[in-house]
Structure formats: C-alpha cells, structure tokens
Specification:
Helix content: 40-55%
Number of helices: 4
Order of helices and strands: HHHH
Radius of gyration: 20 Å
C-alpha cells in the first residue's frame, strides 16, 4: 500500500532571515538540536549579541574586581550560576555552529577545527560567512508528522 505524499514540517530554515530577537529565540529554542540548518543572519546576530554581552560582562568584572567572589555564600551561588550558564551557552553555540555548517553543506565535524588555536577559529568564521548551499537540505530532519521517515512513504 502506498501513502500519498505529505508535506514535511517546516521550521525556520535558511532563506528565512531572522532579526536580532528571532535569532536569540532560535538560539535558545534549538539549543540542543544538532540537526537542521541555521541561516547566516541567525548565526551573525547571535555572534553580535555574544560580543556585546561579553564586553559588558568584562566591564562589570573590571568594576567588581575588588570584591572576592568566593568570600560569601552569595558569591558562591553566583559563581555556580555563572558556571551553569557558561556550560549551556557553550552547548548552544556548538549546536548553532554545527547547524550553520550544515547550511553550507558541510559536515558538523568541521567544528573540530576550533581545536586548532587561532587558525581553526578563523577558518570557522570564514566558513560561517559562506552563502547557503541548497544541498545542505540533506541535514534537515526529513520526517513527516507521524514520525516515520519520509523515504518510507515514497513510491
């Protein structure tokens, strides 16, 4: 028995520009998703937000440098919350980088270039600037709403 073709679910895929708040929303919502693709605007808006927040955090650390963080319970709790936030943001950023690589039709394993000091990060930044490649659709989650692979329904 053959099934009629059904449309595939569509979320925010490349080709759909997102603004600064849409990029952050996707960054958090898709934080643990390593499949699919991320558009250039999604990647670069998050990169801009990361730089701005990092600069503000460094400015705040400079002003608070006289206060020892571990001297009281509140400082310890704040340090633990900062550590947890850092872990989540590292995972979210790794996920975004992998999805951006998928958009240029590159394997997510290219993110391992980041292990090469300086040059690896520069290469990843250059790759993030590449235009989208339609062949990157192979990295999309190709399931129909019932949860079965779309290939099982083709005749």
């Amino acid at each position: 028995m053959t099934y009629p073709a059904q449309p595939l679910p569509r979320s925010t895929q490349p080709g759909e520009s997102v603004g600064p708040l849409g990029a952050v929303r996707n960054y958090v919502r898709k934080g643990f998703r390593f499949s699919g693709r991320a558009s250039r605007s999604e990647y670069w808006w998050v990169a801009l937000w990361t730089v701005v927040i990092s600069l503000l955090t460094e400015l705040g650390n400079f002003r608070l440098s006289d206060e020892p963080w571990g001297s009281n319970a509140l400082g310890l709790i704040l340090a633990l919350l900062l550590f947890a936030a850092t872990i989540f943001l590292a995972i979210f950023s790794l996920s975004l980088s992998v999805r951006r690589l998928h958009d240029i039709n590159a394997s997510g394993l290219w993110v391992l270039l980041a292990l090469i000091p300086l040059l690896g990060h520069l290469a990843l930044l250059a790759m993030a600037a590449f235009p989208p490649d339609p062949r990157g659709a192979r990295f999309d989650n190709q399931t129909i709403p019932t949860g079965t692979p779309a290939a099982a329904h083709r005749t």
